[in-house]
Amino acid sequence: MNKAFRRAAKISKKGSDSLDTKKKTTLARITASGDIVETTLVGYIQKFPRIEKKDDFFPQLVDLVVGTDRYKKALGALNWAAGRTELLKNQSLKEVRRTKDPAIIDSIRKGFYGRLGSYIKQISKDLEFLGEARDKIKVLPTIDPSVPTVVVAGFPNVGKSSLVTYISTAVPEIAPYPFTTKGITIGHIIDEWRKYQIVDTPGLLDRDFEDRNDIEKQAVLALRFLTDIMIFIIDPSETCGYSMEKQMNLLESIKANFSDVPIMVVESKCDIMRTDSDVMHISSVTQEGMEELKAELVEKLRKILRERALETPLEEAE
User: What is the CATH number of the domain that holds 224?
Assistant: First the structure.
């Protein structure tokens, strides 16, 4: 509002006489201040991401961080104020053009400023909310839901970060994530011209689902919409600090909550201990099994890409 009124106060127009000068100046000031408020509000609305589908990762994340209903309500309030500003501006301009009384012209201008300020005051809480929402949304992980994504799960110290680092083409990015203290690790797998994502989420998939509060449960479920393949790492040596019983219980908990996600179970630290299980065995120390795991993983990701390519024309037709 200060910006709008300061800009308007600097405007001065010349007319054929004193009345014409006052009228032209007032018309220009009302137009300038109204346009600044309207375009600023519309600009805010356009810069905020649209939340269309709830059954997707980013909308779920926004719902966790700021609350989707409140978010949409706030943007709706800005849209209302922008629309009212446009109507008020046009109505005030029309009234100024019609009158020949300098006192009425001043009254129309003051009335316009007052009502314009009242519109902004009515949405002040929405503007404050969106200011806070902007700061929270800006630090959300830069994960592209359209790219096939691998999520790595398992207890701490079983070798998740080593696997992500080995498979990724560069040093994985550490990005903030709500309800985790360490942030998530995001790596990229380059397969010729194809690119995939591999993600480790410390603090989210390393405890039983039942042990979480409601917000943490929602965070885990948000990951479900992101995950195309999950790698669950087991440490049979138990040097991670968790017994095999606890690790298997966590695996069953994840299977129950990611029932539609294919899970690759892998045993790590085979340089320390190797079981006779028929799952893949890997070691981040000797690199044993790492290339084989990567090759199998890439083949599965290629299949997902092929399936998506077949589905795309059907979706566009719908």
Answer: 3.40.50.300
Which domain does 112 fall in, by range? 2-138
179 Ramachandran zone, left/alpha/beta (phi>0; psi -120 to 50): left
Q: How far is CA 10 from the centre of its chain?
A: 40
- Which residue carries 């994985």 as its tokens? 172
The confidence score (pLDDT) of residue 112 equals 97
Q: What are phi and psi of 139, to 5 degrees?
A: -100, 10
Residue 65 domain-assigned?
A: yes
Q: Which residues of the chain have pLDDT under 50?
A: 314-315, 317-318
Question: What local confidence, expressed as pLDDT, does residue 178 receive?
Answer: 65
Nearest residue to 126 via CA among 82, 83, 71, 85: 71
Alpha helices in the chain (DSSP H): 2-9, 18-47, 57-65, 68-98, 102-122, 124-138, 160-167, 214-224, 244-257, 290-317
Q: Is the domain of 59 the same as that of 162?
A: no
- How do beta strands 173-175 and 184-191 pair? antiparallel
How confident is the model at residue 55, as a pLDDT?
62
Are residue 24 and residue 45 in the same domain, yes or no? yes
Q: Give the whole-angstrom CA distance, residue 121 versus residue 128.
A: 11
Q: Which of 107, 138, 169 is the last residue of a domain?
A: 138
Looking at the structure, tell me whether residues 122 and 155 fall in a common domain: no
Tokens coding 299: 């083949």
Give CA 184 to chain center in angstroms: 14
The pTM of the full predicted model, rounded to 2 decimals, is: 0.71
Question: Looking at the domain assignment, is residue 143 inside a domain?
Answer: no
Q: What is the pLDDT of residue 220?
A: 77
Residue 144 domain flag = no
Contact criterion met (CB below 8 Å) for 258 and 224? yes
Cβ-count burial 184-195 (b if 16+ within 10 Å, e if not): bbbbbbebeeee
